[in-house]
Amino acid sequence: MRTQVGIVGAGPAGLTLGRLLEQAGIESVILESRSRAYVEHRIRAGVLEQRTVDLLNGAGVGERMAREGIVHHGVELQFDGERHRIPLSDLTGGRTIVIYGQTEVVKDLIAARLATGSPLLFEVDHVAVADLDSDRPAISFTHGGVSQELECDVVAGCDGFHGICRDVIPPGVLRYFDKEYPFGWLGVLAAVAPSSEELIYASNDRGFALHSMRSPEVSRFYLQVAPKEDIAEWSDERIWEELRARLETVSGWTLSTGPVLEKGITAMRSFVTEPMQFGRLFLAGDAAHIVPPTGAKGLNLAAFDVTVLTRALSAWYGSGDASLLDGYSQACLHRVWRAQHFSWWMTTLLHTFDHYDAYDRRLQESYLDYVCSSVAASTTLAENYVGLDMPDH
Ligand code: FAD
Ligand code: PHB
After folding, report:
1. Does residue 331 sit in helix, strand or coil?
2. Which among 182, 199, 176 has a CA at the least distance from the CA of 296?
3. Best of 44, 97, 125, 201 for a ligand 1 pocket test (most atoms within 8 Å of beta carbon)
4. Taking the model in full, what pTM does it have?
5. Residue 389 binned pLDDT confidence (cut-offs 50, 70, 90)
6. H/E element holding 52?
């Protein structure tokens, strides 16, 4: 087999890249180790920045999102028995965010790809990448028990944090920047109408809690828990009890409960690899960087990376100009580091840390109060949350 761009991974990064390349008239083959059902039901992100929405619309996959996505103009921060609204749109010249699950983005992209007949192989095994420093890199894999080799011009490593592409790069080339947080998030999907019109980020002495949503009938919640917490210890009753304890701190407000549809625990980590490329391999999305989900940035960053990569590949195929490809990492990393800082900032602002003493907690409360009462400070949160305009885009 031969193609122009071999894409490893059919998460948001790989699927969006495939779609953008198709629009640019560039061929690709997408290889995914999991089944279609698995990738379509992996519950993760829920908040899309305006620019990501615009990108998906421009890619011709925004029709259902326009119908089912929920546009939000603000978010709530809750602490010390009070809720404070950050009016995102008022502070950012009218920008909004859209609540539309990653599962739905992935379903729409897969449906669009299958409709055009462009190759997308699920359940591939033994994926290996070779000859990255030549002009004919190759991906070997097995599919349906048959070994195959895909010869490419370029390989896009869109295989997430635990993928194989990053590790193919020879030792000494990459520099890693890494931070682990002393907690994880227990995520819960529940068949109950949201108890709030907007997302609630709640700081509480018992730990952080987040009330999000997926639709008028389905709510999404997160609880800060110990990093190695066993999900078996969290019965549905215990989850609701803890969510109530952390969220029902505002007088008169109650949390509606319902059947739990899904629950799981995710570790919290920040990670960046520099550069994001080697020879003919380009890393995009979680394969190159991870942020803690408090800032809702991961999927949005993945969408940005593949936009930059598509532009660079279009220039290269169009005129032979490799300068944008050469500058790929630099163009991405500028935004990546802004998102790293914002995600770390939101995380440290809102979570409890075991090593915090009473003084640290007071500092945190003072900062939260400042973010909610100063236009300058709330604008900092708002403009980062809805997505900054940066000169490289
Ligand atoms: P992935 O989604 O990880 O996709 C990688 C794909 O590659 C997978 O399908 C995997 O199966 C496949 N793969 C791996 N190895 C191989 C291999 N060897 N061969 C072939 N295929 C392979 N982001 C936001 O923007 N907003 C949010 O609100 C938000 N909330 C989040 C909440 C949680 C609880 C979590 C965990 C994440 C959240 N994120 C959020 C982050 C977001 O989900 C990720 O950043 C996003 O999934 C990254 O997409 P990706 O395509 O780079 O990687
Ligand atoms: C979600 O709805 O899954 C979600 C919302 C906001 C975040 C993270 C996740 O910061």
Report:
1. helix
2. 199
3. 44
4. 0.97
5. confident
6. helix 50-58
